[in-house]
Each structure stands twice: as C-alpha cells, then as structure tokens.
C-alpha cells in the first residue's frame, strides 16, 4: 500500500423495521434492508454536510426515501429503489439539501 493511502471499510447495519429515520450513527455505513414489503426511509437533518449513507435493497420490498420538513432531496430519477439488490447512496450537500444517486426507478 502506498504511503498516504488508507483502506476504507463500511459497517453493515441491518434494518429490522419497515419504517425508520436516518441517525448520526448511520453515517458512512451500508444499510441492508431485507423485506418482502416496501420500506420508508425518512431522511433527518441530524447528519453533517458531506455525510453519506449507502443502502442495499436485499429483499423484494422497495425503499422509498422521504425528507423531514424543511429538507430537499435532489435526484435525477425517483426516490424509490428499482429492484432487488439495488444499491443507492444519499449524501448531505448543504444544511437542508440531500442528494440521492444509484439504482433508482
């Protein structure tokens, strides 16, 4: 490994409920959702600018992202994962703006 480089690893966090809000403890983590029914993810304003959370839809239940009042979600597509094994990322750009990218509908 070259000097100045470091390995980046992510903890995997499993979701056991069909509706939850992002928390500061989720930043930098891979959130794995394995459900037969759809899951609603509420993006909170608790994280810092630049923080990112990755998600993978392991089951057939799609993930739908909504924001708390006062936040804006930017995306080139929808806010719903496309299919099983879709991977997406959310990242906080400003105090009230989040960006979603990945395998979305």
List keywords for this structure.
single chain, 105 residues, mainly beta, Jelly Rolls, 3-stranded parallel beta sheet, 9 strands, 42% strand
Please give a quick description of this structure.
The chain is 0% helix and 42% strand. It contains no helices and 9 strands.
Q: Layout of helices and strands, plus pairs?
A:
Layout: E1 12-15, E2 19-21, E3 30-33, E4 39-43, E5 52-57, E6 63-67, E7 72-74, E8 87-94, E9 97-102
Parallel strand pairs: 1-3, 2-4, 3-5, 4-6, 7-9
Antiparallel strand pairs: 5-8, 8-9
Mean pLDDT: 90
* CATH architecture name: Sandwich
Reported by name, the CATH topology is Jelly Rolls
Main-sheet strand order equals 1-3-5-8-9-7
Beta fraction = 35-45%
Overview of this structure, please?
The relative contact order is 0.21. The protein has a single domain (12-102), classed as gp9 (Jelly Rolls), CATH 2.60.120.640. The chain is globular, with a radius of gyration of 14 Å. The chain has strands spanning 12-15, 19-21, 30-33, 39-43, 52-57, 63-67, 72-74, 87-94, 97-102. With 105 residues, the protein is mainly beta. The mean pLDDT is 90. A hairpin with a 2-residue loop joins strand 8 (87-94) and strand 9 (97-102). The protein contains no helices and nine strands. Strands 1-3-5-8-9-7 form a six-stranded mixed sheet, with no helix packed on it. Strands 2-4-6 form a three-stranded parallel sheet, with no helix packed on it.
């Amino acid at each position: 490994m070259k000097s100045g480089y470091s390995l980046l690893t992510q903890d995997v966090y499993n979701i056991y409920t069909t509706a939850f809000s992002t928390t500061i403890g989720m930043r930098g983590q891979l959130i794995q959702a394995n459900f037969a029914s759809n899951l609603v993810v509420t993006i909170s304003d608790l994280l810092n600018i630049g923080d990112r959370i990755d998600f993978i839809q392991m089951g057939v239940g799609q993930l739908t992202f909504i924001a708390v009042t006062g936040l804006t979600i930017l995306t080139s597509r929808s806010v719903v994962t496309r299919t099983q094994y879709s991977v997406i990322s959310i990242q906080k750009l400003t105090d009230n703006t989040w960006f979603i990218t990945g395998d979305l509908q």
